[in-house]
Amino acid sequence: MEQLIIFAILISLGYFFGRRAEKNHYKSILEREKQWLRLPTSSSKHVMGDIRKIDHCELANGNMVVSIDYFKRVLAGLRNFFGGNVQSYETLIDRARREAVLRMKESCPDADQIINLRLETSSITKGNRKQIGSVEVLAYGTAIYFCK
Amino acid sequence: MLLSNTEHIPGKRITAFYGVVSGSTVRAKHAGRDIMAGIKNIFGGELKGYTELLQESRDEAIDRMKSQAQQLGANAVVNVRFSTSSVAAGAAEIYVYGTAVSVE
Questions:
Q1: Tell me, what DSSP letter sits at residue A53?
Q2: Which domain holds residue A60?
Q3: What is the least distance, in Å, from the CA of B51 to any CA of chain A?
Q4: How far away is chain A from the Cα of B9, in angstroms, using its nearest Cα?
Q5: pTM, whole model, 2 decimals?
């Protein structure tokens, strides 16, 4: 009985806090993505568009480690049983990716464009007995500065 | 030292190759952070401690790669790649590698 109560408390805590955190995070992501539209980013290897002289370039990177909440973890466990899209994990990784790209852009605010964007996802707590469900997303690319 | 993850430094010409250079760090988080992460696992959200830790170790790995390239006499590293792996519970290895070159 006690275990059931603890389980219910954990689930509701995860549900309320997790949902609120996700909503706020998506709001801030959308706002900042609009703001950073002025810094074009591509995954191609060549400088896009104009052929102005390049002044210098530098490596830019941004990362984020995000953890799943208890409610979603239980939900994902159920999904594992029935099969299908595990949507709770999809939004989690989507959030982490977009945040990592934004952080990369924020690390070089004066750049004119970022080329060769690469995204890498890894689970840093793999093999941990306690099973902390978290992923790390790293975004990196080459920031190009044109001659002014 | 110029770094780029493209095959060449944009706008510059490569004059000499020096081979592959790399840098790595293995870092562990202290127990306090692990406990905090365990709590965060109920509520969800960003694990700030881990984010900072990985960023710091990545910077250090880059510094090591740079100093290796400097020793070879290079002034740029192209085709930089990152890789992360968890070697043991609570420790992560950050590995960064690239090709050391000279640009004019």
A1: P
A2: 2-146
A3: 5
A4: 7
A5: 0.87
Distance CA A146, CA A25 (A): 33
> The complex's ipTM?
0.85
Strands A113-122 and B2-3: unpaired
pLDDT at B102: 93
CATH number of the domain at A120, please. Answer: 3.30.110.70
Nearest to A144 among B10, B38, B58 (CB): B10
Chains A, B: CB contacts under 8 A, how many?
135
Q: Would the CB atoms of A21 and B84 count as touching at under 8 Å?
A: no
**Closest partner CB to A67 (pick from B2, B4, B37):** B37
Each residue's pLDDT tens digit, A44-93:
888 887 677 888 889 999 999 888 888 888 888 888 788 888 888 888 88
**Domain B2-103, CATH homologous superfamily name and number:** Hypothetical protein apc22750. Chain B (3.30.110.70)
Q: Are B8 and B98 in contact (CB under 8 A)?
A: no
Instruction: Kindly give, in sequence order, each residue whose CB lies less than 8 Å from that of residue A122, ignoring residues fewer than 6 positions away.
Output: A135, A136, A138, B84, B85, B86
Q: Which member of A21, A57, A136 has the closest CB to residue B9?
A: A57
Contact A116 B5 (CB under 8 A): yes
Beta-carbon separation of A65 and B4 below 8 A = no
CA distance B70 to A46: 26
Domain total of chain A: 1
Reported confidence tier of residue B43, pLDDT bands at 50, 70, 90: confident
